[in-house]
Every structure is written in C-alpha cells, then in structure tokens.
C-alpha cells in the first residue's frame, strides 16, 4: 500500500511539473503570440543577414541551389572558385558540366546540382534576358529552384517579401506553437498571415540563427532561451 501511495505521489508531482509548461496559443491568440516571438528574436538577433556569400542576385541564386542538403559554411568554401570561373549567368550557361561538377563536388549531389546550375543560367539568359527574375512564378520555373530558394532570393537580394521555410524554420515554428503543419508551403502561408510582409525574410533568418545557436533539434537549451516563458515545447 505504501509503495502504491508513493507511486501515485510521484505521478502527481510529474503532472504538476508538466503543467507549468505554457499552453499552445489558441487561434485567436496566434497573432499576438507571433508578434511576441518576432520581438524576442529581434532582441537576440538584431542583425539578421543571409550567411551565403554573394555579390549579385545571380550569385545568391546559385549559392542557394548549392545549399540544398549542405551547410552554408561548405557552400561559401566552394563558391569563390565557382564564381571566379563563371561570374555571370552568361558564363555559366555555356559551362562544361564536368568542370562545374568538379567545382561543386564537396557540396553533395554534385551531378544534379551542376546540371541545375547550368540549366538555371540558360533559362535566365534565354527567357529573362540575362536578369534573374523577381516574380515567384518565374523563379520556381527555373531548374533547381523551389519556393524556399525563391524566397531566399526575393528577401535577401531583391528586397521583396519572402519567407523561406527550411528545416530550422519548420521545426521552430512547430515548437513555438505557430503551426501544427508539416508542409513547408502551408507553414509559409500561415506565417505570412501572422507577420508583416516587411518582416518575413529577417524573421526566417532569425529563426534559423536561433535554431543553430539555442534551439537545437535534439538538445534545445531552454534555460538560455528568451522565448521559454511562452514556448509550449519548453523542456521543464
């Protein structure tokens, strides 16, 4: 009997500890919750810039294509030689695919990436007069370019609204109670509805920084997180 009472007491203590975790915001509470998250991120990361090294929209587009399943650090190690050999879309459009493969090999999936880079450059030259387009529907029509890549370009190089949803943004948006969805496009649309368009790009960059520095996928450091008091996934 004593053991049973002790077990019941432990369960109550555990339940009490779990109950201290903030609740997920309701639909009505979401807009204010999102703005609080935005405010906290701005305090921790006042400067939010794209970490892919580039000097033009074309270079950022190429670098973002290379960043698929690869770190920004690795991409930044590869692009100086790539851009030295092919500084413009016109240069890359006539590149030898085997040479491009050699230059981007260390980023992984180098064969498909080299093919997409040359295909993208060709499309920019033949369909858009050598200028990287700005419209979402035009960008996603380029080889190797999806919504995430297009949003990176729009927000970081063209000064247009765009909220890239990568693995960090997807993970943290769910943890913070901003969404329950797994689909990146649905999450993008939900976040867009909660935040001012002029904040979209930097909000994504700040979430990425927070995911890398504090909110680790396996071991989030909740004791260091400014958003812990409002995070429904906080580890107590």
Topology:
Layout: H1 2-18, H2 30-44, H3 57-66, H4 72-85, H5 89-93, H6 97-104, H7 110-128, H8 136-139, H9 147-156, H10 167-175, H11 184-194, H12 200-213
Helix pairs in contact: 3-4, 3-7, 3-9, 6-7, 10-12
Key phrases:
236 residues, mainly alpha, Endonuclease Iii, domain 2, 2 domains, 12 helices, elongated
Count of extended strands: 0
Low-confidence residue ranges = 13-17
Can you give the mean pLDDT?
93
Sketch the major β-sheet. Answer: none
- Which secondary-structure class do the elements indicate? mainly alpha
Work out the oligomeric state of the chains in this entry.
single chain
Number of domains: 2
Shape: elongated
Share in β-strands:
under 5%
Q: How many individual helices?
A: 12
The fold-level CATH name of the largest domain is Endonuclease III, domain 1
CATH superfamily of the largest domain: Hypothetical protein, domain 2
Can you tell me the CATH class of the largest domain? Mainly Alpha
Helix percent reads 55-70%
Describe the structure.
The chain is mostly helical. It has 2 domains: 24-49 and 163-230, Orthogonal Bundle (Endonuclease Iii, domain 2), CATH 1.10.1670; 57-156, Hypothetical protein, domain 2 (Endonuclease III, domain 1), CATH 1.10.340.30. 58% of the residues lie in helices and 0% in strands. It contains 12 helices and no strands. The chain has helices spanning 2-18, 30-44, 57-66, 72-85, 89-93, 97-104, 110-128, 136-139, 147-156, 167-175, 184-194, 200-213. The protein starts with a helix and ends in a 23-residue tail after the last helix. The relative contact order is 0.13. Residues 13-17 have low confidence and may be disordered.
